[in-house]
Structure prediction request, 285 residues.
Amino acid sequence: MSTENKQRNIPAVGNIGAGLFEIFMPGLIFAALYILLQSGFGLVCSHLSASGPAPLKAFVLNKPGLILAAEIVLPMAAALLAVFPEGKRRLEAFWKRKVSGAEERGGEREALLLVLLAAAACAFCIFGNAWIQAMGLNSDSVSAMQPIYNEIPFPFLLLLFAGFTPFAEEFVFRGLVYTGLRRRFPPLLSVFLSAVCFGLYHGELIQGIYAFCMGLILGLSMEHSGDIRMPWLLHGLANGLPLCLSFFGLWEPLAGPAGRAGALVCLLISAGLYGAFSARRGERK
Prediction:
């Protein structure tokens, strides 16, 4: 093979950098916009609450629905703006819900793997949240918003955390970042890198570690299903389960030592079975 042909087969560093930039840019734009919009909204509310005119002050303090509306609008706006530069092509690729180059999905084995991932997601969200609570590691942002969330009716709160916010995040991190990675890299590496992006986006150490672990599960569900609705469903389930348990008075028993141990056992069993069935699936190919 001539030197010229060898050079043609070696991708230029600039091309690799441009490809990675294209993959990760939607996630970076989404994270930056969401943080900027949320921070700006928080500053406005704080200013109005502290020194604004009496009618505006009363409106902000007595209308938790305003916070709820912002928490719905801001991630959705950030998600849409994140793909605005590429417009129609990105949106069409998302709605087709296909991962380029992935094998055909379907069958009983894929369904079993997805069920195990759902079980792992539920067990991890219970164990992770209970452990964070027991260790007193709740983030400052969560603690600051908790009094406001307590004033929001449960159905709307569930719609926010189990519906709108998961949709916006899955739209970006599995619908765009993961699928972009999957076109160029093997499945496990794509899952890992998209989970790293998801963890970094949360901006805090504890939340970032939790989000990274959950991102691994969500990425695997996207790989096995080839359908963005699956990680959206699991993400909503993981977010909504603690809310439902708390609303019905079942969270405190599960958050105790026995509940944490049980959730950890369920997590290890479901993860072990997933690994075993995945290995057998790989051997048969």
Residues 3-284 form one domain. Confidence is low (pLDDT under 50) at residues 1-13, 55-61, 100-104. The chain has 13 helices and no strands.
